[in-house]
Specification:
By secondary structure, the protein is of the alpha+beta class. It has helices at residues 24-33, 58-69, 73-80, 84-91, 94-97; strands at 4-10, 16-21, 48-55. The N and C termini lie far apart (42 Å).
Length: 102
Amino acid sequence: MKQYYVYIIKCSDSSYYTGVTNSIERRLYEHNLGRDKRAYTFSKRPVELVWFEIFSDINEAIIIEKKVKGWSRKKKEALINEDWDKLILFSKNYTEYGKPKI
């Protein structure tokens, strides 16, 4: 069975990049190698893998990747740190619940 990975890497400028791949080791190597000067991570090397999840369905992996890409930095950090309370807090609609108090 094929495996697909949704991953978050932390760049040298402390920004995050989210992607999907079928080989996490190869993809991390490619990010750090910097083959494509137009790539987001090219000028932000080295990068470090900080989170990943494994999927057996590529379509599900792509859906999750797109969701995570749209998340705020705080929400991504809650996921990386496995802080489920903050992940829920940062998932709430601010117009309905107001800004979170941390």
